[in-house]
Amino acid sequence: xxxxxxxxxxxxxxxxxxxxxxxxxxxxxxxxxxxxxxxxxxxxxxxxxxxxxxxxxxxxxxxxxxxxxxxxxxxxxxxxxxxxxxxxxxxxxxxxxxxxxxxxxxxxxxxxxxxxxxxxxxxxxxxxxxxxxxxxxxxxxxxxxxxxxxxxxxxxxxxxxxxxxxxxxxxxxxxxxxxxxxxxxxxxxxxxxxxx
Length: 196
Hints:
Layout: H1 17-27, H2 29-53, H3 61-98, E1 102-117, E2 120-132, E3 140-145, H4 151-159, E4 162-169, E5 174-178, E6 185-189
Antiparallel strand pairs: 1-2, 1-4, 2-3, 3-6, 4-5, 5-6
Helix pairs in contact: 2-3
């Protein structure tokens, strides 16, 4: 899907072969978190059953206890991340099936969000898009990048802080965005009052 060198295809975005290939890449990502999370939770259950079944202490008890404690915290965390990815992929599939790709001009910026805690101040960067739809238009729409963005994702946006991207979705709701260059789908949300 070469966003920079071709115009968006007509029809639903999911009808485009390149879009289906990109979405297929994301379809397996939730399972990379869900399966290990379920396995770790299964280990917690197995260790609990083992302790109830054989109350006599053995030399393996210390090792089993450490592994069980790690599994007790890591298992649910992996399951939650996997479910988050699963929900995101399903939402993207619905948006791509209902809306067509359209080219928009965008400008990327970052907002620093500060949280005040008893231990001090915590700052985090949040990506924000200003989209001009149609590309020659002058009325901006502010969008917030959705979900978990990695430092590598942020680097892609920083390398191309403005240009033409394709979006599918409603500017007042859920959107899917794809940048020119290395293809990767991004989720975004529009219609957020505090961004305007």
